[in-house]
Amino acid sequence: MKRRQFLTGCAALAATALVNPMEAMSFPTVFPHGTTIYKPSKCWNGFTVFGTEVEAEGTVLIDMNGNVVKQWTDICQAEHPPKLLKGGYLAGAKRPSPEKKGRTWGDESSTDLVVVDWNEKVVRKIPRAGMHHDYQFEGNPVGYHAPGMPVDNRKGKMLILSHKFVHNDKITKKELYDDYIVEVDKNGKIIWEWLASDHFDEMNFPPEFKKTLRKYPTFSMTRTPGKKGGDWIHVNAASYLGPNKWYDEDPKTYSMFNPDNIIISNRQTNTSCIIDKKTGKLVWQIGPYYYKDSVWEFNGKKYKKAYKKLGQIIGQHHTHMIPKGLPGEGNIMVYDNGGYAGYGPRNPGAPYGWSNARRDYSRVIEFDPRTLKIVWEHSAKQMGMRNKYQFYSDYVSSAQRLPNGNTMITNGAVGQFQEVTPDHEIVWEYISPYYTKKGNYNLVYRAMRVPYDYVPQLKQPKEKAVTPPENTTFRIKAD
């Protein structure tokens, strides 16, 4: 059995036990898809949008019972992520022609970033944006719903994460497939830009980290035809901090939390950073090492035990500040994948020192950005599972805080979405049935929940509870 099938089976089977979802675990090849758990009274109900990563299927919108209520087959065809705006508008990557799949800013082979209306008419387009992994609209910092900050300003400024091919001998002799963040105005004109490699010296990488990175900068083929590049940092999330209580409390002391500043997640370096919008400099960073004796610098001071509270983060996704108006506002939330990432000394699992940090379980963490103290953590351990790998997505994935305090989690490598309560109860679960042509994976980069009123074209659907069978007595009848 392929590893991804194994993980999917683990996740699905864990969810299908009625009394205790964790009491019966094995490695099944047969498991349910669609909505497998649903407790309406405990959920923050709405529609869920996600990209399927299957070219012919594109983007799907489902209700709480897993029924497909809308599908856009030409938006996010194995690109990510799609985002639904209030009014029934959808944003995402659109290929000008089938072969144009690139993720490089301004390149002829790259995708456009578009907004389409409910009838799929393009109402805004950033040509050849080559968007990868994230983008934001003015008026909402993170791209998911927050009270008072709906995602609805399709005509305003946009923040876009893309790539550029560059050389930087401080990093490596090889060409870099560098991360490029650009902000455009309502007319598509660039009004701000930031290139990751320009800030290499600010990233506090240890000597042995730099040495390995220089030799092995994650050099591989890109989506630009015929081009290789070092995806050395791999930024997978970029969002504004947005209005927050820290900056409101003391703008001088907490100037790094200026609402205009931008927070990024850097998968391959195991770091997350905040960029000062005015200067472009990094003003807050965690990682790459999180040892108990690692020193963390914050606001001009050094803290010797801060990382002891946080623990090692590996290959993380969707680092962002929880928006104002939501439970936990001002805290940083991260999907800490585990898996493999980083650079440094070699070890038996990483003989070249590339992706030398490894861990076979995931967790979602919420922490205070001033102290790194964990406020909330969700993982197999918190759910009462014996084996940590029972909650695991080694890449992609995300976490969205919902207005009722629940958290919408995308365990992307196994195509699993879960809404969990603060007490770690799974109150909604969905397993994606959209597999690649070879049928070996159903990856979903990021799923997001939106209120029903984001889609005035549809009536609010009926919400029917879904109670899974008791695992130990569930049987499949013989033919």
TrEMBL record:
It holds the Pfam family Arylsulfotrans. It comes from the Bacteria. Keywords: Signal. InterPro entries: Arylsulfate_ST, Arylsulfotransferase_bact, Quinoprotein_ADH-like_sf. Residues 1-26 form the signal peptide. This is Thioredoxin.
